[in-house]
Structure formats: C-alpha cells, structure tokens
C-alpha cells in the first residue's frame, strides 16, 4: 500500500525542544517535521545525545514540545489534559526499553498483564488468557509462570514485548530494544519486530546499530537537532 493511502497516526510540525534557560539552554530539536503512518517501521538513528530519546518521549506523551504542533489521530495533543494523555498512552502505545523494566516481584504472566490492569480489565481469567496469547506470539508460552529473574535477557525482552502488545496498541515504541542483548539474541528480537510489522503493527525504534537499519521501512538520521529521512534498505 502507498504511504499516502494509509492512515496517518502522528503529525508533528515545526517541533522544537529546548532544555534549560539562558546560558544553559540546549536546543535538542530544531523545527522538525514528522508524519507517521500506520504500518511504518521507522528507525531513528543518530549519535549519543542527538535527541533520539527526547523525540520518543514527546511522541509517547512523556514530555512536552517547546514550540510547534503535535497531532495524534487528528487531535491536538497540547489541548489534552494529563488524565486524557495517560489514557491515550495506555491505550495506543506499547513501550519497549533497553533494560526491559520488568517487575521482579511479579511472575511473567503478571508482568504481561499489567497494561490490562491499568486499563481497568478486572476479569482475571481474561487477563491470563491474553497473557498466554501474547507469550505464545513472542515464542515463550512455557515461561508463563516463571520468575523474571530466571529468564535470559532475550526471554526478558520477549516478555516486555508481550507486555507492550497486550493492549493491542496502535504503536510500538522501542528505545534500543536490542542494546542489552548479544547480537544473535538481538537478531531474534528484531525478527519478531519485523514479523509484527508485517502483520501491520506500526513500530518506532531507536538504535545506534547501523546493522539493524535493514529491518526498517523508513530511516531518520538525527544530527545537531535536525533530521533527514533516508530511503529504507529493504
Ligand atoms: N530532562 C532533561 N534536562 C536537560 N537536558 C536534557 C534532558 N533530557 C535530555 N537532555 C539533553 O538533550 C540532549 C538529547 O538527549 P537524549 O537523551 O534525547 O539523547 P539520545 O539521542 O537518546 O542519546 P543516547 O543515544 O545516549 O541515548 C542531550 O544533550 C541531553 O543532555
Ligand atoms: Mg537515548
């Protein structure tokens, strides 16, 4: 499908992000423009400190723009209050991080179910069934009762991906999802993300690793607060 025919999820126009004031002011993003369509697998690359996480935080409603406009599913994000932003975030975004951020005092199923609990899903049986479904999807159904500490890094990241998927979000946000994994395990996680993208899931991912760009359908390279889009490799 052509990009123009797919639904636009996100539109950022002339977005600037500054931290600090006066002499301490840092301009991290300079009037950038970004449109994300359903089905994109967008990778954001750039050296350390170039603003990749800052951009992800703004996309995921975790930080505010300094200037510019952000519209999400046609709604102006600046007009939403914190409650509304939290509920949109919980419903439409699934987050995956380099350090997994699983809760060690909960078992695998309980970790995966967390977004459903936040969303108010009270039926335990439904939650467990959903956890089973998504743990199967990420290839580790047998770990459903395991303690998170008993899992390998790659298995922990699969649990985190199942947790990110369980609410059936529109977007998966992944900041260096393979950063803490050895390269073979990382390739396993990337294959899973590519499979999810082929099934239609929209993914925005940050990486340092040029070798991973082959998985993207779009690539944005950040540099000095601006970015350029490059053709995808695949
Ligand atoms: N809350 C904050 N307050 C002040 N400055 C910040 C804040 N968050 C980020 N910055 C600055 O913004 C710039 C971009 O940081 P960011 O974390 O987005 O970089 P990054 O591209 O994700 O880097 P890395 O690859 O190391 O994760 C850095 O100069 C950082 O010091
Ligand atoms: Mg970062």
UniProtKB/TrEMBL annotation:
Keywords: Amino-acid transport, ATP-binding, Nucleotide-binding, Transport. GO terms for molecular function: ATP binding; ATP hydrolysis activity; transmembrane transporter activity. GO terms for biological process: amino acid transport. Pfam families: ABC_tran. Residues 10-233 form the ABC transporter domain. The keyword Ribonucleoprotein does not apply. One of its GO terms (cellular component) is membrane protein complex. Belongs to the ABC transporter superfamily. This is ABC transport system ATP-binding protein.
